[in-house]
Specification:
Structural class: alpha+beta
Strand order of the largest sheet: 3-4-8-7
Order of helices and strands: EEEEHEEEEHH
Shape: rod-shaped
Helix content: 10-25%
CATH topology of the largest domain: HSP40/DNAj peptide-binding domain
CATH architecture of the largest domain: Sandwich
Length: 149
């Protein structure tokens, strides 16, 4: 049931006046928010953080569900913000019992590389012919600044 859903159960409320029939019981549902999942109808939405290496090479990660765990296959070369869909891992429909889907948004973490990782990334950049102007110090510019000062 969704937040704010109201339903009525006939003749289960308070007793009627002077021996009359019982009133109706009216129930309003309030659903608390979950810290990891956002509800959208019977579908659930969540965000998963992965390392940039996992995004490049692909990975299989454990994913927490409301009622357990499952594995999620991250395809290689996935882009940040991509949404993967797990069919039938949402919430059941109140009337039909059919389950919604789970939408998983991929967030790629990029941290400052360590010395060894940086060296390997520079080698990859050379292989891809990306140039080296971003990591080599520009001595010409440094000399010009010294002359101005």
């Amino acid at each position: 049931m969704e937040d704010g859903y109201t339903f009525r159960i006939p003749n289960k409320g308070n007793d009627g006046k002077n021996g009359g029939p019982s009133g109706d019981l009216i129930i309003k549902v309030n659903v608390r928010r979950h810290p990891k999942f956002v509800r959208n109808g019977n579908n659930l939405e969540t965000t998963v953080d992965i390392d940039y290496v996992q995004a490049l090479l692909g990975a299989t990660i454990d994913l927490e569900l409301l009622n357990g765990k499952t594995t999620l296959k991250i395809p290689e070369g996935i882009n940040p913000g991509t949404v993967l869909v797990l069919k039938g891992h949402g919430l059941p429909d109140f009337r039909t019992g059919k389950f919604g889907d789970l939408y998983v948004k991929i967030n790629v973490r990029i941290k400052k590389p360590g010395l060894r990782e940086k060296k390997l990334l520079k080698e990859i950049a050379k292989l891809k012919r990306l140039g080296n102007k971003f990591w080599k110090k520009d001595l010409t510019l440094k000399r010009k600044l010294l002359i101005i000062l």
